[in-house]
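Subject: Sanity check before I submit

Could someone independently write out the structure tokens for this chain? I want to compare against mine line by line before I put it in a report. The sequence has 258 residues.
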Amino acid sequence: MKVVLFCGGYGMRMRGGSEDVVPKPMQLVGPRPLLWHVMRYYAHYGHKEFVLCLGYGAEHIKNFFLTYQETASNDFVIRDGQVQLLGTDISDWSITFVDTGVESAIGERLRRVREHLDGDEYFLANYADVLTDAPLDTMIERFHASGAAASMMVVPPQSSFHCVDISETGEVKNIMPVARMPLWENGGYFVLSQEIFDLLPPGGDLIADACDALAGQGRLFGYRHLGFWKPADTFKERAELDDAYRDGARPWMVWESA
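---
Independent answer below. Compare away.
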């Protein structure tokens, strides 16, 4: 299936200041940007046709692939002055770059790339800033078995904050970490059908408009994942992923274990 990646937002919580113009999907984890890690995950499962929804910082994403250096993540031999690669990342990928507007909501970005999906009945979508070791094949199989029109991966809350149960008089009854509460949050990995476009108004949002409507109809499936899942929504989270990469703790790099 084709993979739609939303990589056009400002990413304000990630940027280090007004001079930091690199978009969030291009922030590095190891020698490669977040976007590459997400794409490599999908490619590992055989999904190598990508549609990039560009907006803010589009030139950084375009230049990365136009000047792609295979040697940054593949072994190679120099013989007689020629570089001979011992592996390749993206030689069999197809990547479509689409300007979907700087201010567009996620749903509008999706609407603007519909023509590039070739009418495929099903496709994948992702925010391009979350890494996971979730078994994508199983996620897709469960979606099809559910008969739903769309699926999202859901994960336990990741917050380190605590919720407080307090009475009207101010007496604290209970304190519980958010992560231990019986809640699930959107994990950012979607399997979608073409029906999603019927629920997206111009300028609309994927979650608030389309997914919420399907949930009300009982036609939105949630795949619960209890394994590794890590967002890179802030500078701190991205730095934690980078540290994990350098320490060799890379559960999201499922292609390495293979």
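---
OP: Matches mine. For the report I'm noting this point. The two ends are 21 Å apart (CA to CA).
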